[in-house]
Design goal:
This is Ribonuclease 3. With 234 residues, this protein is mainly alpha-helical. The chain is 62% helix and 11% strand.
């Protein structure tokens, strides 16, 4: 593959940023390549397959940590805690810390419409980075990366300093106002089967309060609830 000079520069600079040197540069190149760039440059692999793997690697690393650290928490509470850590918002925060958007290879259209700052693109790319490190250096190196950049988010979540269960909070707020019938509705599915995006609405009675998008219906519901809380249209 003929790799352009910008991509080579991006890889070297990014390795310095995350303090990890790849033995196989093709992994990190793929992780930094968005599908929009691959569509315009057919010899580049895009990062969606790595994203799929990275999601699982991140989940097992966080699950293992919480299981061993929080010995008295029941399964339901562990699941909520993990969801609070492994979500688009957290991942995009970490992506911001390492300036991931600066290193992505994006197509011209995605570049023009602000793709470097889009939460979904950043979160997906971070999962792809985790997978690339896992494939290149194994689970231990992937774990080091995760804890190096997510330690504060993990500990703040455990201590209750980060609250991201917006659905529960919205329900509590609405019920305090006497509103009982809260509903969520799927209004759109985007993308191919292996990389679906879901768009959900939340409302009361016949009134829409917020709209959210995510990689699962549950994630989209959380984003919709957050949107409703922010707009305060109730």
């Amino acid at each position: 593959m003929n790799v352009n000079k910008k991509a080579i520069y991006n890889i070297s600079k990014f390795e310095d940023t995350i303090n990890y040197k790849f033995e196989k540069k093709s992994y990190i190149l793929e992780a930094l390549t968005h599908s929009s760039y691959s569509n315009e440059n057919k010899n580049y692999k895009f990062n969606e397959r790595l994203e799929f793997l990275g999601d699982s690697v991140l989940s097992i690393v966080i699950s293992d940590y919480l299981f061993k650290k929080e010995k008295n928490l029941p399964e339901g509470e562990l699941t909520k805690l993990r969801a609070n850590i492994v979500c688009e918002e957290s991942l995009s925060e970490v992506a911001g810390q390492i300036h991931l958007g600066e290193y992505l290879l994006l197509g011209k259209g995605e570049e023009a419409t602000g793709g470097r700052d889009r939460i979904s693109i950043l979160a997906d790319a971070l999962e792809a980075i985790i997978a690339a490190i896992y494939l290149d250096g194994g689970l231990e190196e992937a774990s080091k990366f995760i804890f190096r950049f997510m330690e504060e988010i993990i500990e703040n979540s455990i201590e209750g300093k980060i609250f991201r269960d917006y659905k529960t909070y919205l329900q509590e707020v609405l019920q305090s106002k006497g509103e009982q019938h809260i509903w969520y509705k799927l209004i759109e599915e985007k993308g191919p089967d292996h990389n679906k995006r879901f768009v959900m609405e939340v409302g009361i009675n016949d009134k829409v309060l917020g709209v959210g998008e995510g990689k699962s219906k549950k994630d989209a519901e959380q984003v919709a609830a957050k949107s409703a809380l922010k707009s305060q249209k109730f």
